[in-house]
Amino acid sequence: RKEVEQDPGPFNVPEGATVAFNCTYSNSASQSFFWYRQDCRKEPKLLMSVYSSGNEDGRFTAQLNRASQYISLLIRDSKLSDSATYLCVVRVAGNQFYFGTGTSLTVIP
Amino acid sequence: NAGVTQTPKFQVLKTGQSMTLQCAQDMNHEYMSWYRQDPGMGLRLIHYSVGAGITDQGEVPNGYNVSRSTTEDFPLRLLSAAPSQTSVYFCASSKYQDGISSYEQYFGPGTRLTVT
Fold first, then answer.
1. Buried/exposed A71-87: b ≥16 CB within 10 Å, e otherwise
2. CB proximity B50 to A under 8 Å
3. How far is B61 from chain A (nearest CA, A)?
């Protein structure tokens, strides 16, 4: 079983739409959670850390549900520049990180 | 700051050859790591280091060696390249001080390696 699972998509949404991605993780001892974005053939870039109480950064909202072992990312008012692959990342004990395979988003004009 | 830099950007090796992928960061980050990214697999941790002289294995360490002689540099050595090591390799770093890490990683631009 994979440590981190994401729906690969693709998600094709019009500009201005709201879109949500979910990610599930298998290890209940996971300690830290992140969302990264990766543009085609580029390196991953940190989008936001995910805190237990949930957190928001502009149009982006991240939620953590430890009981159900999933993390979500909500993007409001989608922009063309949001088109990318979104990676869910989980840190288990120490410095072991596990990445999901990513969810592809295309925002259409 | 240049951030995290990697060289080379592209490399083609023959089976059995060895080479070193270079990674450097100028952010004074103590934690550095190497990942490989393969289609449908997500990034997988190869090796990591929490400071000069300290390295440890990640999820897929076989066939790779690392050393960390300075805070800035963390080279990855392929000992005897195999076609299964064809991949995109990313180096990353994050702040790790007094046993506390932000765990927020900054990635280099990657090295695309093909082994024939």
1. bbbebeebeeebbbbbb
2. yes
3. 13
